């Protein structure tokens, strides 16, 4: 604050006050003061609106961008004895406010004004409450742009029964406090929200007399709530700001629902519907507040038939109804859902229709046979049935569904098979109405044996930006000469950064394309080698996020020996899965208190608050795997190298209480290590000073010099030493080992007696 400018403002106030005394005929009246934040900091350039509640006239005081001073110059035609003056002050960012009142006295009219200092408080309001229910609750809403710590705040009713609050309410967020029935009156009451120093907000409802019942909020009935509407509005008129809600919105904005629910995705199961089928009908529903229930309606015979009302279980939800089809084949059936929300807003889905099909399945396929003998594929062929409405063949391989083969195709080629392996194809035919032939037509065949495989394994890799080098292997090869291999991968998960020679294989050329996710590699060995060969070493870099997986797919364009003979082979593909690699974040390392006296092994007591400190940090795991453990190295002060710090349920705070036997007369940086569930670690430090009790001159020993310093202090010849009570308060009345919260000649005497062996170590 610039004191020169402030002095000018104060002189202005004095001159105006002097004008009141000298020029009585103009009778000016000045209201002025200073605006501060709740923590004592000055609030420069506040907005201060001043209202005479008896006349309804409102003024805005003069303020300055450089100071926290405000003033308003009126005259006695505006102000009278007994007038109630309301002050409405707001910080420049709108995060903190204060609304308070002052009654004008005769003395203030005589002296021409008064000084009124204002302390701002966070912009938190009572946004919604339930007073007539088995569980009562009050919802607070932070209208500011910064979080507010509610520690020490209270809620009070008209009987001033206080409910302590705690926790942090985030900016533009809500916090709800619930209580057993009986705290708030059902008919009328008042709710106060108080910080540690001032009233933040209050709401009177129904007939509670707070001096003006006309502006009271309405009372709610059983199961209803009273809340601000629009959400968070605060005009200081509860009658205008609050209304009753049929559907309380605890922890959410207050809204009035006039919008009916809406629907999407009408479906039937099965999609193709035959005579006598039991069909399940589905339609998805959503609502701005909450869904209530639905009615299903069908038209199979020319008339609509409604099913019973069914309640939704959540919002959004799927309306579901099972109905047996009684209509004959060829009939067009209509169906729809009607749904309503908890505000009794109804809506209907569009009418959906389907045609009932026949239920006679087609004949089976014939002449099912294998027409190939390859290492990695089998091609089966067959003859389709002659049914006019035949649609497709459902194909299964070793009991696993593969695909539908349409009418007229008459073959299925199974690829990417393992060499020298038996496979069974199983088929069933289906017609256009979805009728499936119950008879299976199967055939068993096998693949040709391959002696050589081209392989890449399955790997895990840290992210972000982790790297990994893996080999492409040639297994069971004879006379390896050269090969061209293409590796495909998901370019949004990994990129290839390098291709290097493998053992006994020299990479001649490679083409890395991280745009398409491919790398083409050609390598050779001029001498020819046998067995298991590293064809090439591939280096990957992680570019995706935690949990992302990419297949590693190989295709062999050329593989031959030194005699230029092509070698039969098969591929074995792999994958890379990205694992989170972000370490936890450690912050706010703190020792409370930051300095303690040493713990000695004698029986002489210490005050716990003087030889014990709480070491704490905030640990957050931004990677998402969760915090595994937090430890601190206390070896510098005589403790364990891996002392656990525990989370007491207070968010991300980890702490431990400790004393110190070592490291006396030193300031220590104690190392904290945090590990997440992916074993990523981070370190930080907490500073702690360990002092020797009795060592007031801080030379790491207790001797007659310390007693002399205390004696000189008692007669004004020495100043307070650092941590005066911590090191100097040694003995109290009647020899109390805990001291007496002061440093005097009794403490000097104890040190003097200790130096000659008449007392224990302090």
TrEMBL record:
Q: Which Pfam families match?
A: LTD (PF00932)
Which stretches make up the LTD domain? 112-228
**What Gene Ontology molecular-function terms does this entry list?**
carbohydrate binding
One of this protein's GO BP terms?
A: polysaccharide catabolic process
- Quick one: where's region Disordered? 214-237
Protein's UniProt name: Lamin Tail Domain protein
What is the protein's species of origin? Candidatus Argoarchaeum ethanivorans
